[in-house]
Amino acid sequence: RHRQPGRKTRNLRVCAATTTASSMEVFADFCDEMQERICKAAEELDGDTTATFCKDEFTRPGGRGCTRVLQGGRLLEKAAVNVSVLSGTLTPERAQAMRQRGRDGVDAIGGQPYAAAALSLVFHPRSPHVPTLRADVRLFAIDGGDGGGWYGGGCDLTPNYLEEQDIVGFHSHWRDVCAKHDAKGSDGIYRHCKAHCDEYFYIPARGEHRGTGGIFFDDAHTLEAIGGPSSGADDMQAVDAFTRDVAENLLPSWEPIVARRRGTPVTDAEREWQCRRRGRYIEFNLLNDRGVRFGLVNAPPPGQKDVPLPRMESIMVSAPPEVRWTYVGDADNRRPEGDREEQMLE
Q: What percent of the chain has pLDDT over 90?
């Protein structure tokens, strides 16, 4: 049963000797609270009193979740804010992928119990002049893994048109957030998370970055692992504090852009370009995004009725409401030099 913020999560699997049930429960409570706060703030920012977030709560063997979606708003054509609290057993595919990222406590053959709690969001604005916002925070732990598990998260932009003021302001906001948790005078956390974001949100088949980046971190059980200082015995608490601060700053990093761009007039050609750019968003999610692939690879083999199918509506909820793939032959694939759309691709 879904909890109200502040209530404890029951029956979570304890996954590492030093990962107590309460630590995962407390983070799950935080995700629930932030979901409620973000949805309320986003509705106020949208300004359309008839557009509100639906609430789709679910429970299933191994966990629970809540998918909240707003559709057809004045600002937000589609917005999703999701919480999932899960436990299960690692598949060999997932275990091998984690080993390749340096998680030495993971058995490559799979089979280890895991627990996870996560908050994620994606906002697809109606205007092509307002960038898409994607963000998440999460805690993941396995039996035999490092200490209290691993934190991850981030926040990034996918604009349709390059506006230097917007991009610089967004990155400056996140540099300041990271600096609060770094050594005095250092920008190691920001530089690490920015570089990781640029590397992760890349579409190899296109030779393109999906957007203009932001911050992204994963597999973090110390700040030192993401370019920050050592916190000694308080390493996990320091990463937890950083992760929570990221969650608190998701909307504040985006709201100044919204204020500047939401009233910009839109042409049919700009709408067409926006829908084509959204196609890149879908391509990345299906081909490269680890979260989407994690949800899909946990599907049971054909005929196995005792394991529930993935919740596809929740996995694909980040998809934009309208997307276009317009065929463009090689001869017509480049635009005139200086064209705003071509600048976006460059």
A: 60
